[in-house]
Amino acid sequence: MAHLTASSTRPPKADHRLTGGSSADTPTSVKTAPAEANQSTTERAEDRRREQARVIHAINEALRGPVLDIYRTLLPQLGPLSYEDVLATPGLVDGCFRLFEKRRDTFAALLVTDSGLPVADDDTPLSCGRSVAEIRTLVVRTSAKKYFRTHGDRFGDVEEHKRRPDTKVNTSLLARLFELVASLWQGRDGRRTAHDDAARRARIKADQLYEEMAPYLRHDWQVSLIPYYATLPRTLIAEMGEGLLSLRRPEDLEFLLRIGRANFNEAQNITGELSREMLDTDPRAARGVTHVGGKEYERLLNGLHGRMGGRFWKVFTATELLDSLGSKSTADIVEMAAHLDRMGSDSVDYLVQFLQRPQIAPFLSVAETALGSEVFNAVFGTPGDPKLARIFAQKAAQLRVDRDDPEDFGRKLTFIFQAYHTSPDDFAKTL
Questions:
Q1: Which domain holds residue 331?
Q2: 75 within domain boundaries
Q3: Cα-flanking dihedrals φ and ψ of residue 391, to 5°?
């Protein structure tokens, strides 16, 4: 489904387009008596709420009716399911999103402006007043809310997922996430299964989890993560903020949860004023920060952060890379700054072993230009191709260059990568 349904969705905090704006938009230059101004502001707010309700109702009706009718013709498994059932099943919503992208032409009659003109992009407002992109975001949020409410205090019941024929959830990974939260994270949501008023309490917990996460539910790729999101403590979601969007796979969430509350707190203490930047960029970096400790963190911070910006934190998600950097001089590491967040530990070792310091940066630059980013990452990244990375570094070290011409190394280096392109199989044999 490329669209939504529910009136209680919360938009991103910095974007009021989905809610019709804010009362803060009232012009301050108009001189009005306080009572009249308050009444006017209240009336405008009420008008906006009515308009918002009208738009949401129009979207709901379209989704519940003609949109779902089209999907039922394309996906037979939707036949016996209600509109609410579909929205409460992230796997089905994800399938609808994918189908919409593949068969967008099937929905052409519904993708029109208020004047009847066809809409071929995701940003032009449709006749309901919202664009495909905005409706897609609303669907993601509603799917999350309905999933959380449907499962309630049964979040940790992994067996339930195994019994559902429509699920695409990796139940073994889901079980590990719940176990990690129970063993390594304190102050989690305290989801209980007591009999007294259990339904009401489950709904409250589900709504609290949703309200914490809603500002960061913005993309269609997040739908498939909703069952895994349900394992996260609300306190952790609040701490991560924008960083939640850097975790695009269930395995990324597992990586994060393995850090544990104690180490997560320690990493924030070590990074101090930069902790917010770390969490917003990639909260998994907390693992690397505690792995190396404060002294090594400060060394790398002083040498790299100013040159790498936000990419600096990606380095701290790879402990093997950090172990390699621990034995390298800051001067050598700085030469790799433009590529370090995409490099594996073996590549770092070989460059320092075989090349002179002034050759490191030109080598990496020429390598990416000649090979292309995809092949560069496949050779010098993680896991990379350590054998090939070593051969490239050794061949570069054997070049006879004009010491009086600083550009000579780069020019001759190009021939090495061209030789690889010409005959990859024979390349290593000429060493």
A1: 327-431
A2: no
A3: -65, -45
Residue 118's DSSP bridge partners are: 112
Q: Within a 10 A sphere around the Cβ of 236, how many other Cβ atoms? A: 23
- 388, part of any domain: yes
Phi, psi of 372 (to 5 degrees): 90, 155
Q: Is the dihedral of CA 217, 138, 115, 111 positive or negative?
A: positive
Place of tokens 């394992």: 231
Helices (H), 301-344: 306-308, 312-315, 319-325, 330-334
Token digits for 208? 């609290």
Q: Is 377 within the bounds of a domain? A: yes
- In the chain, the number of structural domains is 1
- If you search the block for the tokens 């009999």, which residue do you land on? 195
Coil, strand or helix at 199: helix
* Structural domain contains residue 364: yes
Please report, in tens digits, the pLDDT of each residue of the chain (431 residues total): 654 443 333 334 444 334 333 333 434 444 455 666 666 788 888 888 888 888 888 888 889 899 999 999 998 888 888 999 999 999 999 999 999 999 999 999 999 999 999 999 999 999 988 999 999 999 999 999 999 988 765 666 677 766 665 567 888 898 899 899 999 996 443 334 444 466 566 678 889 999 999 999 999 999 999 999 999 999 999 999 999 999 999 999 999 999 999 999 999 999 999 999 999 999 999 999 999 999 999 999 999 999 999 999 999 999 999 999 999 999 999 999 999 999 999 999 999 999 999 999 999 999 999 999 999 999 999 999 999 999 999 999 999 988 888 889 999 999 999 999 888 888 877 65
Beta bridge partners of 147: none
d(CA 342, CA 379): 10
pTM for the predicted model, two decimal places:
0.81
